[in-house]
UniProtKB/TrEMBL annotation:
Record-linked SUPFAM superfamilies: Homeodomain-like, P-loop containing nucleoside triphosphate hydrolases, PYP-like sensor domain (PAS domain)
Protein name: HTH-type transcriptional regulatory protein TyrR
Annotated keywords: Aromatic hydrocarbons catabolism, ATP-binding, DNA-binding, Nucleotide-binding, Transcription, Transcription regulation
Provenance organism: Salinibacillus xinjiangensis
A molecular-function term among this protein's GO annotations: DNA binding
Length: 455
């Protein structure tokens, strides 16, 4: 309804469709401040569905809890500027100015909608580019914790929890998908603890062969098995005084889980083939990409060990649920790999926007890997979307991938427009109406281009 009203008043359908495809957020509001139009970028930037924005005033959104805090500044010869803090922790920078009709009367307000963090990042890039004659690389940003980058609400909450937990001796169980940064959290617990100057040993329980893991963890006595020609301390003893991270603890064989539970409870370790109990003073941290409660229910993990490890549970959300971390992570990884490979690569705003919209199934590790790949293989210093693999551009098929024959470009444009119309209007018949062609034409072209209705 709002969009149709806008079309009627401005009479520029093509303009509206263009605004819909913009990376920058754009809003229109009445004189009373009620928003009657917002493009898709507003939802992408804010993380708030358009249905919760369009049709409401900022005050109503405050009452609904969508906006946590808002500050407004008005100058006589400048646009109105606003900074909104949203319930998901994002900060939005809005510039608004009135739109006048031919008689000089205000008909509405138009506003640009920006992610404040992204603006700050781009400002830093600009500052750096003006100083590149005297510097060769972008240094990694300063951070309070070791290699823990992120400014999202979820990450800041995690940092606060880790700072509290680190001062204790409590066992911590860290859970989250692969690549979210469980090792980074564990290292920071150690670095912030009283054990920071003692050993920190990370053990991947899924990487050590099952026939070797017992001897590796507990050590062995001379003659315990073939090839045991001397006594050898295990990783637990080597970490005495420090911290042990049992990574992927869900992969530990069941028979060793019993021995681990005894070590934790008695604070003593017995080597393979030995009888002497040796005192052990370590702080245990466990990590898993599995849901250990489900593993317990399925009989794949001991219930008593689970409860012994789950003293302080920490869950790390996937990167797709804390997208405010993407920009600082990009900045950090870009600086790191620019220094490593002696390059000066910069990500364009369009590339950053695509990264913001991507769901990152591989989480932080995937983001790190793609930035390293781009730094290595991109010949130009400016990394635009044309250099990205196709999976990062699926939401924006209009991104130009390079020069191609006009016939092929026309065909691709038809494919993109048909897909866009069907996705938007929900049926071939409605799509054909808005594309101003016969229903049979769309059917024929869909068959020609192998387009499925439920793509």
């Amino acid at each position: 309804m709002y969009k149709d009203n806008l079309n009627y008043r401005l009479k520029h359908t093509d303009l509206i469709e263009t605004i819909e495809q913009m990376y920058e957020g754009f809003l229109l509001s009445t004189i009373e401040g009620r928003i009657f139009y917002a493009n898709q970028a507003v939802a992408d930037i804010s993380g708030i569905p358009l249905k919760d924005i369009v049709g409401k005033t900022p005050k109503e959104m405050e009452k609904a809890g969508i906006i946590v805090k808002q500050s407004t500044k008005v100058k006589s010869k400048a646009p109105i500027t606003m900074i909104q803090k949203l319930k998901n922790g994002k900060e939005i920078f809005i510039t608004s100015r009135p739109i006048y009709d031919e008689k000089g009367s205000i008909i509405c307000f138009a506003a640009n909608y920006h992610h404040l963090q992204q603006l700050n990042y781009l400002h830093k890039l600009h500052d750096h580019s003006s100083q590149t004659e005297s510097r060769d690389v972008v240094p990694p940003p300063s951070i309070q914790t070791e290699n823990w980058i992120g400014e999202s609400y979820a990450t800041n909450q995690l940092k606060e929890k880790v700072a509290k937990v680190a001062t204790t001796e409590a066992i911590v169980l860290i859970q989250g998908d692969s690549g979210v940064g469980k090792e980074v959290v564990a290292k920071n617990i150690h670095k912030l603890s009283q054990r920071k100057n003692k050993p920190y040993i990370q053990i991947n329980c899924g990487a050590i062969p099952e026939e070797l893991i017992e001897a590796e963890l507990f050590g062995y006595e001379k003659g315990a098995f073939t090839g045991a020609n001397s006594d050898k301390e295990g990783l637990f003893e080597a970490a005495n005084g420090g911290t042990v991270l049992l990574d992927e603890i869900g992969e530990m064989p069941l028979h060793l889980q019993v021995r681990l539970l005894r070590v934790i409870q008695t604070k003593k370790v017995t080597r393979v083939g030995g009888t002497k109990e040796r005192p052990l003073n370590v702080r245990f941290i466990a990590a898993s990409n599995k849901n250990l409660q489900e593993s317990v229910d399925q009989g794949e993990f001991r219930e008593d060990l689970f409860y012994r490890l789950n003293v302080i549970p920490i869950f790390i959300p996937p990167l797709k649920d804390r997208k405010e971390d993407i920009l600082p992570l990009c900045e950090y990884f870009l600086g790191t790999f620019n220094e490593k490979y002696q390059t000066k690569k910069v990500l364009t705003p369009e590339t950053l926007q695509l990264f913001q919209e991507f769901d990152w199934p591989g989480n932080v590790r995937q983001l790190e890997n793609i930035i390293e790949r781009l730094v290595i293989i991109t010949e130009e210093d400016t990394v635009s979307p044309i250099f990205l693999p196709d999976e990062y551009k699926h939401r924006h098929p209009q991104v130009i991938k390079g020069i191609k024959p006009l016939k092929e470009a026309r065909e691709q444009a038809e494919i993109n427009m048909i897909q866009l119309a069907i996705n938007k209007y929900g049926s071939i018949r409605k799509a054909a109406k808005h594309l101003e062609v016969d229903h049979s034409t769309i059917v024929r072209k869909m068959k020609k281009y192998h387009i499925k209705e439920d793509f």
